[in-house]
């Protein structure tokens, strides 16, 4: 998953452009956009290009933020679960690489993964036009060459065993394009943290959303409402008419202020994943549950899979362009279920969850 599968809007729109363009095949995009992985036993201290991207650059500083977050979050999860993460690391000849950490068949989590990616690549001009959101401005700029880009990010999904413990996802990323054909380079941030329970526990949702409202309020009082609504909109499973879960915050293409301020916000947000999520897991990880409650969890995981494979832009782009498949599909649960025409009983806890997914609620 991470940013090799989700290089923000430019890559996501590049996927759409590659689908519709007869000139750029999917294989061509994969062959020239991102170099092949070289697996290493131990991840290097930095994945940015030495001597080119200096320590004080936004690229290097953002990488440091996400590498530190990967360490601290994995440590916190392992401490609760009692089982360590398995790590795969790789580099690429022209710079960049990734670190995938996965905890599988744990005591608390069936599957939990935290991925970091640093990607140097190029995209076709038509993808760049889509990425800028201003095709009219760029239509006479020609098709000379490919547009160099940089992307770095951290992404995670955690699927607990107990149906009373929620699934949680987060992703924080930074993207740059270099100057191309007279068009100045672009930069932006994106990300968010969201929660997907199988049952509604209002005090848990108040804690999770309250944690992120406090993060948002420290940086801009308008952030929480804006990003909460954006999250509810983004995670809509259109063919079901329901959200994947009970939301959180989500933002993309954020470059409306000083990048230092957005870096501080992104850092604050990713550094509050543990505070927002882990107390809820600790509270419920030993709760008793019935086979029927476990079945409901499996059905909701099926919805999770549907969203990720059908609508999640990063996942679909990674699958279509041949990214590292184990990282891309790290987000999938080990088990899920699709029961024919399953309808929860009116007035049941399962029906309440479904209503909350169909009609987003205000939690704080």
Automatic annotation (TrEMBL):
Pathway: Porphyrin-containing compound metabolism; protoporphyrin-IX biosynthesis; protoporphyrinogen-IX from coproporphyrinogen-III (O2 route): step 1/1. It is an enzyme of class 1 (oxidoreductase). It catalyses: coproporphyrinogen III + O2 + 2 H(+) = protoporphyrinogen IX + 2 CO2 + 2 H2O. It comes from Chlamydomonas schloesseri. The keyword Transit peptide applies. This is coproporphyrinogen oxidase. Its EC number is 1.3.3.3. InterPro entries: Coprogen_oxidase_aer, Coprogen_oxidase_aer_sf, Coprogen_oxidase_CS. One of its GO terms (molecular function) is coproporphyrinogen oxidase activity. Keywords: Chloroplast, Oxidoreductase, Plastid, Porphyrin biosynthesis, Transit peptide. The keyword Oxidoreductase applies. PROSITE patterns: COPROGEN_OXIDASE. One of its GO terms (biological process) is protoporphyrinogen IX biosynthetic process. GO terms for cellular component: chloroplast stroma. Pfam families: Coprogen_oxidas. Belongs to the aerobic coproporphyrinogen-III oxidase family. Homodimer. It is found in: Plastid, Chloroplast.
């Amino acid at each position: 998953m991470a940013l090799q599968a989700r290089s923000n809007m430019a890559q996501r729109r590049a996927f759409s452009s590659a689908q519709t363009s007869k000139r750029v095949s999917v294989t061509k995009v994969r062959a020239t956009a991102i170099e092949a992985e070289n697996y290493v036993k131990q991840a290097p201290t930095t994945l940015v290009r030495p001597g080119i991207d200096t320590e004080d650059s936004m690229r290097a500083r953002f990488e440091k933020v996400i590498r530190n977050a990967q360490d601290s979050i994995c440590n916190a999860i392992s401490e609760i679960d009692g089982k360590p993460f398995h790590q795969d690391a790789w580099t690429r000849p022209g710079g960049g690489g990734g670190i995938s950490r996965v905890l599988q068949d744990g005591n608390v989590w069936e599957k939990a993964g935290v991925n970091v990616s640093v990607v140097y690549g190029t995209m076709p001009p038509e993808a760049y036009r889509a990425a800028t959101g201003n095709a009219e401005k760029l239509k006479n700029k020609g098709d000379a060459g490919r547009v160099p880009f940089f992307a770095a990010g951290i992404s995670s999904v955690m699927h607990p065993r107990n149906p009373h413990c929620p699934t949680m996802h987060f992703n924080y990323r930074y993207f740059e394009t270099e100057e191309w054909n007279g068009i100045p380079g672009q930069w932006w941030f994106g990300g968010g943290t969201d929660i997907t329970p199988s049952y509604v526990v209002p005090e848990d949702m108040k804690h999770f959303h309250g944690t992120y409202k406090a993060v948002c309020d420290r940086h801009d009082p308008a952030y929480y409402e804006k990003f909460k609504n954006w999250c509810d909109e983004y995670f809509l499973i259109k063919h079901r008419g329901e959200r994947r879960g009970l939301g959180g915050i989500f933002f993309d293409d954020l470059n409306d202020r000083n990048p230092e301020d957005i870096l501080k916000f992104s850092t604050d947000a990713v550094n509050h994943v543990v505070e927002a999520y882990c107390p809820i897991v600790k509270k419920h990880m030993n709760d008793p549950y019935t086979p029927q409650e476990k079945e409901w969890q499996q059905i909701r995981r099926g919805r999770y899979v549907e969203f990720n494979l059908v609508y999640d832009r990063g996942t679909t782009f990674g699958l279509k362009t041949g990214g590292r498949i184990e990282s891309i599909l790290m987000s999938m649960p080990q088990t899920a279920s699709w029961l024919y025409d399953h309808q929860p009983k009116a007035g049941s806890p399962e029906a309440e969850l479904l209503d909350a997914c169909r009609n987003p609620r205000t939690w704080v």
